[in-house]
C-alpha cells in the first residue's frame, strides 16, 4: 500500500524533531560549565530626563526587554566540525544548537563528507570561539573576542581554532588579548575536521548578543590595557561620526550631505578601516560622543569610557538592539532614532541600501539636544 505524501512528511518532521532533541548540546556534551550569569536588561532610557528631548516616538526600543541569561561552555568529544558553517556533528548527526542562526532546511541539509574530513584529533583539546561570519568585524568583536578571552582566562591548556588565513586585524586583536599565536590552530573555511576534544563557547555564537555580559567588558578592557600605540593629537576627538561612505551594504544616498553638516558641528569623520586596531581603540577611548548609522564599525564602542554618549541612526528595515546592549555593558549613554528607509518591510533584508534619504535637519536638531549632556 502506498503511504500518502502528507503522512510521509509528517513522519519525517517527527523524526527530525526527535533527532534534534537527542543531539542537542545538553545531551551530547560530556561537560557543561557556567561561565557567567548575565542580568536582565531593557531598552528604557534612564541616564537623563527623556522629556528634555523632542520627537521621542522615534526611539525604537522603549518596550524591548530581555530576561537574565546564563552563558555556558560545553565540552564535546569525537566530533566533526564543518568550518564553513561552524556546525558540529556527533556520530554523523548534526548538533542543531551549536551555531549562529543556521536553521531550517539549510541546517537539515548539512552532512559529514567522510572522504573529505581532515583529522585534527592529534591536536588534543581545542577551543571553538567564533561563528561562521568570523570576517565580519562586529561578529568577531562581539562574539569571538569575549569567547577567546573566556577560554584564555579558564587556564585550560588547549589550542584556539582560528580562521585560515587569519586576517591582520584579527591577529592583532588576539595579540591584544594576550593570546600566544603559537597556540592557534588554523582551519580552512571550506573543510571539515575530525576533533577529539572541543570546548565550545556559547559566547562565540552570539548567545550574549542581547545580554549584559561582564566577560565581554573584561575582554575589551584587556585589549585596551595592551595597546602599544602612543596617544597622538590626531587620534583624540570629542565628537566622532563613523562613516559608511565606502561600505557595500545599507548605503545612504545623502550621507555626503550629512557628513558636511556634521563637519560644521565639529565632528571628526571616521573611516575605521584607515586606522590600526590600536589606533581605533585610542580614538574610541577618547571620544565623548559617537554618532553612527547601524554598522559593524559601532562595535568599537566596546572601547569607549563609561558615560560616552552613543547616538545610533536606525534603519526601519533592520532595528537591531545589539549596540544598545553593548552600551548597557559598558555603561554608555545610548540613544537611537529610527528612520523610514523606504525598504519593503514585508521582505526584510538587513543589507539593503536606503531608498529614502535621511532626515538630516532632524538629526542635527537631535544632536543639539544630546550634546548638552556631554561631560
UniProtKB/TrEMBL annotation:
Record's keyword annotation contains Magnesium: no
Location of the Glycosyltransferase 61 catalytic domain: 137-310
GO molecular function, one term: glycosyltransferase activity
Pfam families on file: Glyco_transf_61 (PF04577)
Keywords attached to this entry: Glycoprotein, Glycosyltransferase, Transferase
Name this protein carries in UniProt: Glycosyltransferase 61 catalytic domain-containing protein
Organism, scientific name: Commensalibacter papalotli
Taxon lineage: Bacteria, Pseudomonadati, Pseudomonadota, Alphaproteobacteria, Acetobacterales
